[in-house]
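Field notebook, page 476. I keep forgetting to write these up properly, so this time I am using the form the group agreed on. The chain and the ligand, zinc ion, are recorded exactly as supplied. Prediction of the bound pose follows.
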Amino acid sequence: MNLLRPTLLTLACLMALPSHADDLPSLGDASSAIVSPQQEHQLGRAWLSLLRGNVNQLNDPQLKDYVETSVYRLAETSQLQDRRLEFILIDSRELNAFAAPGGIVGVNGGLFLNAQTEGEYASVLAHELAHLSQRHFARGVEAQQRMQLPMMAALLAGIVAAAAGAGDAGIAAIAGTQAAAIQEQRRFSRQNEQEADRIGILNLEKAGYDPRNMPSMFERLMRQYRYDAKPPEFLLTHPVTESRIADTRNRAEQAPKGGTEDSQRYQLIRARVALIYEGTPGLAAKRFRAQLDENPNMDAARYGLALALIKGGQLNEARESLKPLLAKAPNDITYNLAQIDLEITNNRLADAQQRVDRMRALYPANYPLQQARIDLLLKQNRPAEAEKALDALLKNRPEDPDVWYDVAEVRGLAGNTVGLHQARAEYFALVGDYDQAVQQLDYAKQRAGNRVLKEKIDARQRELMEQQRMVKEMMR
Ligand SMILES: [Zn+2]
């Protein structure tokens, strides 16, 4: 199904959870179409898995870590009440980002290509979080501001359909029946967009950013796509007009100056994303070199050049490119991860390990570093240690299919057959393939040595079947 072309991800203008859950219908109450907060959470997660099964994603740990960390930081100063968020990074160079019920935050690779500073990037996400916190979707639907099942289904189906592209007939069929409800929602959008801008600006300021980044980004986007016959989806759902720019400019100007506009870290992440969307490592190297010719002090370009050279197998040149960066910032995690990548590619595993150990002492909880260590342990043919490291990683990332994929691999290598099938089940469930997930748990049960384990697997299997039932019901 993964036939994602340049994706069109509709912006979902949504809602957060009600603060009072007491009087809501209980889970599974068939007499009401109103979704309880817990249902909303579960439905959101179930739909996220369906989305994951239908779009190509970016699985770079550094990119994932950056998006998660930055959005959580914004959420802290936002008006969002339920801050249990899950993320999806979509492999598309088109500008887009969205937030959906159940706390799903989606970001396209193209957001990094278009947003030139961290402040611009944060503007888009603060706006999206505001749609969530202001419960925009529900507000359009009914006065009591509670999500209704058909509306939520329509909304999420729309997201999956748009993200999967028109080419996927199965997903298009799911969305077809729901399209009318999506249209209904649009009627309310202009007012919601204004409010999301306004609340987003307040949040940017509270989070320490200069909110002037928001109108700046709008202005640039308007110039950039003014004569474009097919502007990105984000601009279709978020028409940037002169009056919108003037309005956000006025509001942003009221904030005191001195907020953060950009960060070196954002530029480094941006270089990673730029490399993904270059045709070849050679072309990427050429572009980063041109940037360096213009500005020899541009560390992000030097870093990008090093990555492009590693990817292209020019390891000595890559080493030379990283050298001045590491000399300047010997403990920088991003540069050290690049050097570790270089050593592993060069098969200098002892050097890589030394560096991993030194960095681990400095940043014990860093996800990309943990993942680099696991990759290294596997290269060194040490599956038992890799398994232990992955179990530790799972504690913080229990809903990350990339981690479960590795866990299944490693358990297979370590001869843990029951664990292998359990891990595969979790992986398949997280990417929306419930049939496979349930089957994997059958295999696990058949091989389970004792009754307690069998019962545990059985209980998990029932949970997954319930999730599958929910998804099917929504797709009817
Ligand atoms: Zn919006």
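OBSERVATIONS:
- The chain is about 65% helix and 5% strand.
- Residues 451-475 form the longest helix (25 residues).
FOLLOW-UP: compare against the apo run.
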